[in-house]
Amino acid sequence: MTRMSQAVADSEDGSGQSGDRKVSAKVKLAVGAVGIVFGDIGTSPIYAFRETFVGPHPLTLDTLHLLGVVSLIFWAMTFVVSLQYVTVLMRADNNGQGGTLALVALISNKLGRSSYGWVAVMLGVFATALFYGDSMITPAISVLSAVEGLTTVEARLGEFVIPIALTLLIALFLLQRRGTTTIGKLFSPVMLTYFSVLAFLGIIHIVDHPAVLAALNPWYAVQFFMTDKTLGFLALGSVVLAVTGAEALYTDMGHFGRGPLRISWFGFVMPCLLLNYFGQAAMILNMEAAAAAEAIKNPFFVMAPDMYRLPLVLLATCATFIASQAVISGAFSVTQQAIQLGFVPRLSILHTSETEHGQIYIPFVNWVLMVAVILLVLTFRNSSNLASAYGIAVTGAMLIDTCLMAVLFIAVWKWRWWMAIPIAGVFFLVDGAFFGANLPKVPDGGWFPLLVGAIAFTFLTTWARGRKLMRERMSEVALPIEIFAKSARNSAIRVPGTAIFMASNTGGVPSALLHNIKHNKVLHERVVILTVQIAGKPFVDPSKRIEINEVGDGIFRMVMHYGFMEETDVPAALKGCEACGGMFDMMQTSFFLSRQTLLPSKNPGMSIWREKIFAWMLRNAATAMEFFRLPTNRVVELGSQVEI
């Protein structure tokens, strides 16, 4: 047998089976993605189509507007979700990870410290700030819109909508501490059932009025704009609600991979959503004027026959509960990334699963979101009012992603300008139109996510700037480690054991080490100056986790590398360090930390009010002991004062 025929035989035998396993694994991931990733965009049919007709700028219920709106929804889903996020941005992975911060890290690594790199970072930070506004509104509007379906079962239940919604939302946030390991097993079955019901309800009404499928032709959207230019443009502010959650596909790419997500989207989720939107339009078109005017108040639930309406409300409520869970988990993940990248102070991070690394819980973020969601429900009272606040954050983040995508084309992928500019220009036109259409909503509620975004942006940039200034001031007065190693050889008594001194940079001797010699007048047999560095990529090869060099008699300089999506567990890394020669016995090792106190400076590096905010954040940040998972009975803290 020749080598070629042998290779073919091997391919048909072993590789064929391997290929089958790969396909099976992809299908399993695709099914899992339906339960976790697509909850936000999947619950949009509950309110998106309705809002274009009963929102702040209501449209006439006639053939022109109904077909025009559903045509806009189809092409918005095609351009924004299918092309921009699923096809283009999913190619921009940072070691397999997606999301705005991962994209910024990817671009920054290529641009370095240039002015363009700084602009890209600021855009990413602002998109992250807007995300917090979105993560507050999404649970509120999703759960509230589902519970409002009770009024289609019995009108008198309207007075119970807000109490029920608040009860569900509070329960949702209280469950976060327990994690989603158990309840998460129900996510995929529930969402698969939910999407199947969406498609089934849509098909029933499309069969009754198949002419609605003509709206696949973009001419109906164009005709809508030509007839009602102003209303057509403003309608985009509600149409965009149909694509909210598109960024979740990109953000969760690292959990499922681009292949399974594309299978889920194109093979199941997108067809189900479109069938439901077209079904809603077909149902209204098939009704008398009076019945249509009543049905458009809640078309999603009216699609179901009376006897099945309550089960649909319960199913939709479960779906919105799952969608809200995904958004909250996303807020935890984004916060963890921001902490690692230096934009958020250290916060207490708890792991809710022993097997799933990504399942985390951040108490501070959870309680802030819960209070904000409760206030949103009590203030806006219904999902239509909340819809006015919803679009501005989503479209703002989408527009920022488009800006970063343009930089990606030219700076990272090295596309020719004549190819990059037209493609980026089309996405700018689409996302810019959606953003512009949402600007009139600012007085009606759009101010809320903008306010949250502005506050979050101020805190994020203040922490990053203050941290940079503090490190610079500490570096200016730091004693070089080589000089310290020579002088310490005979100037201090050596005592048994290992002392690890945590240092924020690799340039000098940490203040805790100097204070220890000054006050205790001793030096351990082994002294390690440890700096934890966060790389501009999600994960670091474990074999390259630790660098260690001896700089003097028993004095070592160690640098520990982590990706921005990894947990910084210092004892675990030391335990598994082959290059360390087994020198770290935790019962013979002490960790020394510096706790800085800020002092007013004659020449402050930033505004006094920002300096006060930074000082407050520094005081309330979680200790390095918690963040680096240091053993509590082996930690010593020594204070120091810093002027910034």
Task: Give a short summary of the structure.
The chain contains 26 helices and eight strands. The protein has 644 residues and is an alpha/beta fold.
Describe the protein in words:
This protein is an alpha/beta fold and 644 residues long. It is built from 26 helices and 8 strands. Strands 5-6-4-3-7-8 form a 6-stranded mixed sheet. It has a two-stranded antiparallel sheet with strand order 1-2. Strand 3 (493-502), helix 23 (511-520) and strand 4 form a beta-alpha-beta unit. Helix 21 packs across helix 25 (608-620). Mean pLDDT is 86; it is low at 1-15.
What spatial order of strands do you see in the largest sheet?
A: 5-6-4-3-7-8
Low-confidence stretches: 1-15
- What fraction of residues sit in β-strands? 5-15%
Q: Determine the fraction of residues in helical runs and give it as a percent range.
A: 55-70%
Mean pLDDT, to the nearest integer, reads 86
How many E strands? Answer: 8
Which structural class is indicated by helix and strand composition? alpha/beta
Radius of gyration: 28 Å
For the sheet with most strands, the description reads: 6 strands, mixed
Distance between the termini: 76 Å
Shape: elongated
Helix segment tally: 26
Observed structural traits:
two-stranded antiparallel ribbon; 644 residues; alpha/beta; disordered N terminus; 63% helix; six-stranded mixed sheet; elongated; 26 helices
How is this fold's topology laid out?
Layout: H1 3-36, H2 39-42, H3 48-54, H4 63-88, H5 100-111, H6 115-147, H7 150-153, H8 161-175, H9 187-208, H10 219-227, H11 229-239, H12 246-251, H13 253-256, H14 258-285, H15 289-295, H16 299-302, H17 306-340, E1 350-351, E2 360-361, H18 363-380, H19 383-412, H20 417-438, H21 447-477, H22 481-488, E3 493-502, H23 511-520, E4 522-534, E5 546-552, E6 555-562, H24 570-575, E7 589-599, H25 608-620, H26 624-627, E8 635-643
Parallel strand pairs: 3-4, 3-7, 4-6, 7-8
Antiparallel strand pairs: 1-2, 5-6
